[in-house]
């Protein structure tokens, strides 16, 4: 699919490129023309975070002619390093890989129980973060584009019946008729050519998993993606630089991926009304006597040192720091008394989308291929099994050699939820998720994959998730959801209860589980919120 880029969109992309080349931490159309613009201390609208929810808010505000400042704690990923590449590869990570770490923390800790996956690195504001809580750690993207920089690009629209179950107050027809199509079009969603899929070596691993599922009587379904499959075919043909076919994904893609900096954010900057400040981490939010919001942000340099703080004022405040970022800001604001009227639902309703990762060992004749594309295109869809609803993404494991491993990210209908609480002594939030709650996801994933193993006379892999042997990786998630759930902590459109002109537009609105990979849902809900807010709240 060829996407049409408007002149303003191209201007926005030019602004991103110039800002990167000159090392700016403030990005707007002005920086594309001349020098860095003067500091914006007051903006009519401020957006915290530049992932899906933040990018939609910025574009819609900018198009409505509202001057908007986006504050992002990560960096702009647009400048090539000494190797000529913006991002480092998954197989050979360097400081660009992870957010202020001395060693990488990849989801697959080991291979054959050997510590061969992770590498020592020097601390730097790298693109992938793993945030540790007591019994759960959460992977998130850091930078202009948030999770879109590091994710697998799977662009899945949830089942309407489950969406309606999770969002009883939302008009399902309007979502599926207006906001999901709008989100997919803006994100540049496309699908792999089925003929190419059937013939290419790069998706042998998927076809092998599909056959194993079919042998157990299970259905599989193609899923769309935001990676440009036309580009991927050129990579395979050797006529374009390789990215998805060169093992790139969780530490960023140098080509092919339609991340938000190439879609929503480029269009937002192209309006001329949006400015993005990078490496500024919002620490607190309060309200001034005149009803405007006051934000304090720490300026973080490349070593992680806080080199100063800056204060911003705004009339309209959009929180889009993701499930973790927004929940942290609001729980802290409520419990330290800077926004005391926030209700008890703030921080509640959190879940990891039932995520559990696992590997199966295939027979030697069921090869998965040394060459694997990093963008998943298929899932095992057993969600309609009322006794054990699971949707399992068939995930790649591109190690450059044949290893016979089939890898999966199972999304289970785990009903467990947890809450964030504020730890005054630490000045940080805690997440109350427990190992017992993860065990519910494991039980559901195990039921499905026991069936697949039984039908194929295969076994699990025991060597992938550290020592002692762990079959199910149940202690991390890619899909943090909730903490500020729609209709509970906010009204039915993301307006935070207790305060006017304060909004949430990100994954914290989703009540812990959505049954599929979540960014299309987050984007479509943000579109719905912005349409309503611009029609009702910002009119003069
Ligand atoms: P998000 O994209 O996380 O953006 C939040 C932004 O706010 C980030 O850039 C933060 O750095 C920034 N921020 C946070 N706190 C602050 C603060 N205090 N001050 C300033 N900035 C702040 O939020 N989903 C799919 O649908 N399909 C996939 O294939 C898929 N694969 C994934 C693979 C990986 C490895 C990971 C980590 C995630 C994956 N996801 C996938 C999940 C998806 O990326 C995630 O649901 C969305 O990115 C969440 O969007 P939000 O707008 O909520």
Which cofactors or ions or other ligands sit in this model?
flavin-N7 protonated-adenine dinucleotide
Structural Rg = 22 Å
The helix content is: 25-40%
* Strand runs, count: 20
The N- to C-terminal Cα distance equals 40 Å
Portion of residues in beta strands equals 15-25%
* Sheet having the most strands: 8 strands, mixed
Q: Residue ranges: pLDDT <50 for 5 or more in a row?
A: 1-5, 31-40
Q: What overall form do the CA principal axes indicate?
A: globular
Specify the structural class: alpha+beta
Q: Helix count, per DSSP?
A: 12
Task: Report on this structure.
This protein is an alpha+beta fold and 540 residues long. 26% of the residues lie in helices and 19% in strands. It contains 12 helices and 20 strands. It has helices at 7-21, 29-33, 52-63, 160-166, 172-187, 194-199, 204-215, 229-237, 264-270, 322-335, 435-456, 519-536, and strands at residues 26-27, 42-48, 68-71, 128-132, 137-141, 220-222, 274-277, 280-287, 293-300, 306-319, 355-361, 378-382, 390-395, 405-412, 420-423, 428-431, 459-460, 472-473, 476-477, 502-504. Strands 1, 2, 3, 7, 8, 9, 10 and 20 form an 8-stranded mixed beta sheet that branches. Strands 6, 11, 12, 13, 14, 17 and 18 form a 7-stranded antiparallel beta sheet that branches. Strand 9 (293-300) and strand 10 form a beta hairpin. Helix 1 (7-21) packs across helix 9, helix 3 packs parallel to helix 9 (264-270) and helix 3 packs parallel to helix 12 (519-536). The protein is globular and about 70 Å long. The two termini are 40 Å apart. Residues 1-5 and 31-40 have low confidence and may be disordered. The structure holds flavin-N7 protonated-adenine dinucleotide. Flavin-N7 protonated-adenine dinucleotide (FAE) is lined by residues 48-53, 71-74, 139-142, 146-147, 150-154, 250, 281-282, 320-323, 325, 329, 478-479, 506-507, 517-519, 522.
